Amino acid sequence: MSNFRGYYVKIGNCTFTDPAIKREGLLIMPHLEQTADSGVLASGRLSIKVLPHKRTKIQMQFPVMTKAQYERYYAVIMSSMYLTVEYYNEGIDAYETGTFYHNDMQYKPVIWGGKNMIDMQEIHLIEH
Hints:
Strand order of the largest sheet: 1-4-5-8-3-2
Number of helices: 1
Shape: elongated
Number of strands: 8
Structural class: mainly beta
Distance between the termini: 31 Å
Strand content: over 45%
Order of helices and strands: EEEHEEEEE
Helix content: under 10%
Radius of gyration: 18 Å
Largest sheet: 6 strands, antiparallel
């Protein structure tokens, strides 16, 4: 039985379900290794210093949305440079939580179905 609760990313009370994150536009890269230094030894072997902290990266894309939907997502993401993010890790079928920072939000106005809409570009969340 899956532990999935109907959302992939949650910040505060916002589960990013209206509109939902594009399934093909969601990348969750959990527990990535970080390196501090690398180089080639005299023997020709590669030497990599791996840091003990592993970080997760999340990339999200959304369908076009109304101005009200955009403003709600904007308020949540821009509430702080550092955000407590809960995300679903399908590899372990569990939700994990971390402190993330975000990239600058970008959008472009578009006409969709004869209405003024917002096309919010990719959002990247990087664990601190």
